[in-house]
Specification:
Helices cover 24% and strands 28% of the residues. It is α/β, with parallel strands linked by helices. The protein folds into three domains: 160 residues, FAD/NAD(P)-binding domain, CATH 3.50.50; 68 residues, no CATH class; 87 residues, D-Amino Acid Oxidase, Chain A, domain 2 (2-Layer Sandwich), CATH 3.30.9.30. The chain has a seven-stranded mixed β-sheet with strand order 3-2-1-15-4-5-11. A six-stranded mixed β-sheet has the order 9-8-17-18-19-16, with helices on one face. InterPro entries: FAD/NAD-bd_sf.
Length: 352
């Protein structure tokens, strides 16, 4: 959720279908709707080249052209960044026969890293609609939390401030899967196995782009010096996005980047732990002044926790895992015994 995505979308003459009727290719419409959910658009308009507008809207009306996108003449899309968002988008686009998709990923190979992430019911329903097999593979690795009690908790009395059902009512009404969690490495592996062979290109870090004249497309520039030309470039290159920085003419990182310090730092840990309400509760958010503590069942007897603490910008924070654990224990001293027991049970080397 923290990641701001950017979309550099150059709609060439080929991306403007069926000029006489003004209709748009369904695959282009699907791409634009999906990309709108990711972030911002840079869309070039009419063929005379006199109009170039930037859209932050999810509705984009394509200008009519005289060439139609087809299976023989597909729209070429490059996705900068092979994270879970980029891989999922690539899978969706691979289902469109009128699109050719390529992922540029900066790492030379994928490694298993990161902890569990939550996927809500509405997102699960989208994944299911994109590809049933992918969805079923995800369910094999999934832990449901939305069907249990969740909510805000008083950290001193250990009483519920505000319990809620984490979309359970909506999920039941619309026949959606319940919200839950999956280990990021498992999700990554499922997605990598789901995309067509040859779609992913490793060791390709996108550094910028150039919109070519005369509707010739977008030139994608990489750190290695190799350029590629496509019709649509989608930035999925993280919170410090090079594409977004260029598109919005802002710094890639720092105060001028649009991604400013929230005033909080977060520590995270994971351990095998079974509280008294283990089978009844999905996740809890212990709320306190200028700090809060989140716990969630993440499957296989594990509890993951996040500790948010208000800290001034530039203030020194501990660096080693042992020091981080001690810092968190001190910050939440006197809170619920469950918080204390969970921190005590967490191995220091797992604290980040």
């Amino acid at each position: 959720a923290a990641t701001r995505h950017a979309v550099a979308s150059r709609v060439t003459a080929r991306a403007s279908a069926k000029a006489s009727s003004g209709a748009t290719s369904s695959s282009v419409a699907a791409l634009m709707a999906g990309a709108a959910a990711s972030g911002a658009f840079a869309l070039s308009g009419n063929r005379r080249g006199k109009v170039s507008r930037t859209f932050r809207s999810s509705r984009v009306k394509l200008q009519a052209g005289n060439l139609e996108i087809s299976e023989e003449n597909p729209l070429h899309v490059i996705i900068a960044g092979g994270g879970v968002g980029g891989l999922m988008l690539a899978k969706a686009l691979s289902k469109e026969p009128t699109m050719k998709c390529t992922i540029f990923e900066q790492t030379n190979q994928f490694a298993r890293f990161g902890g569990p992430i939550q996927i809500a019911s509405n997102a699960l329903s989208v994944i299911r609609d994109i590809d049933e097999t992918l969805f079923n593979n995800l369910m094999d690795k999934f832990t449901f939390t939305g069907c249990r009690q969740n909510g805000l908790v008083d950290p001193l009395r250990n009483e519920w401030y505000c319990p809620f059902d984490a979309m359970k009512t909506s999920a039941d009404h619309f026949e959606l899967p319940y919200t839950g969690v999956v280990d990021r490495p498992d999700l990554q592996e499922i997605l990598l196995n789901a995309i067509p062979e040859g779609m992913l290109q490793n060791s390709q870090k996108v550094s910028g782009y150039e919109v070519l004249p005369d509707y010739a497309g977008v030139k994608v520039q990489t750190k290695g010096g190799e350029d590629a030309v496509c019709d649509v470039l989608i930035g999925n290159d993280g919170i410090w996005s090079a594409i977004r920085a260029q598109m919005w003419d802002e710094d890639q990182k720092g105060p001028g980047s649009g991604c400013t310090y929230s005033g909080y730092i977060v520590f995270a840990g994971e351990t095998i732990y079974k509280p008294d309400d283990y089978f009844d509760v999905g996740y809890k958010v212990y709320m306190g002044p200028k700090r809060y503590f989140v716990t969630s069942d993440v499957g296989r007897g594990r509890i993951q926790w996040y500790a948010f603490v208000a800290v001034g910008e530039g203030e020194q924070v501990p660096r080693s895992p042992r020091e981080k654990k001690d810092y968190v224990k001190a910050a939440f001293q006197g809170w619920s015994q469950q918080v204390q027991d969970l921190l005590e049970a967490t191995p220091s080397d797992t604290v980040e």
